[in-house]
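Reopening this one. Same input as before:
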Amino acid sequence: MTKEIFISDDIIQKIPKFDAIIFDCDGVLVDIRNSYDNAINKTISAIMKELFDNEVGDTVTSKIHFGLKAVGGFNDEVAVVYAIIMTLVASKKTNIEFEKLIIDVINNANESGITSIDDYFINQNIDLKEIKLKLDYENSRKVSYIHRIFNQLFYGSSLYEEIFNEKSQFTETPLIDLDNIILDDNLMSKLKTRFGTKISTVTGRGNFAFSYSMKNFLDNFDIKNSVFLEDCSLKLAKPNPESLIESISGINSKCSLYIGDSMEDLLMVEKCKEHGYDVSFCGIYGSSDEPELKYKLFQKNNASFILESIKELPKALNLV
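Same output, byte for byte:
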C-alpha cells in the first residue's frame, strides 16, 4: 500500500520552525516485524507450554496486534503478550472461544493498557489472580517472569546473559538479529544538515537494544538526552509524556517533531502539547502489517504528517 504523503494544512507554515527531530525506534527507524513481533508469539507459545503444557501456535494475528496497539496502551510488546495469555487462560476457564473473547477484550481495552485487561476480566467475574501473579508483569523487568521469557527469546542466550547476568533457558537464534534497519546514511546526512545535534530518540527499547541495532548511527543521536523506556519505571511507559518532555528539554528544543508509529506515540505528543510544549507528530504506517488501518487511525486522530516511511522525510520537510 502506498499513498501520497499527507501534511495537514495547519502544519505547513511550521515546517521551517522545527529545530529538533525525535524518533521512536521500533516501526520507525527499524522494521520489527521479524524481530519483536515474532518474539510476541514465541513468548506466548513458550509460556503456555511451560505453565499449562499447552501447545499453541502463532496466536497473535495482524488484526489482533493492531487492535491492541490502536487503543494506545500497549506500546510495550510484553503488554501484548500479557493480554493474550490472560485471554487464553480465560478462554479455557469459561469455554468461550479465544477468537470471540479477544474481540471483546480489545473492545474494552484502553490507554491504561494491562489495567484495562485486568478490569475487564474482573468485571466479567473471571478469576485470573493466579496467572496474573505468575506472569508478574508489573515487577522489575529483571525479575518479572513474563519479561524474562520475552527477553531470553528476543536477545538470545549470549546477549541475554551479557545484559542480565543470568543464563537463558532457550538456545534459539536471537530475534533481535532479525531487525531490519530502515535508516540509511543518505537520510542521516540530510537530517544532520537540517537539525545538527538535535536528533534524539524516545523509545520503548532499552539502551542496549537500541545501541545494538543502531550501532552504525549511534554517533548521530544525542544519547544523553534520549530516553530508553525499557530501562525506566513502567509508570513512564507511553503515552505518559514525561519521557518526551525530558528529551525536548534536554536538547533545548523550542519547536520539535516527533516521529512515531503508534497510537501511544500520538497520544504522548498530544499530552506534551497540553503541558505547553510546541511539538508535532508524524505517523509512520508502512512498517505495519495493517498499513491501511494504521493510515486511517492516524488520519482519524489528526496526525500532522502521515508517511509510509522515514525515507519520505526529505520530501515532507524539504530537506536538501
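So the earlier flakiness isn't reproducible anymore. For the record, The CA atoms of residues 6 and 306 lie 5 Å apart.
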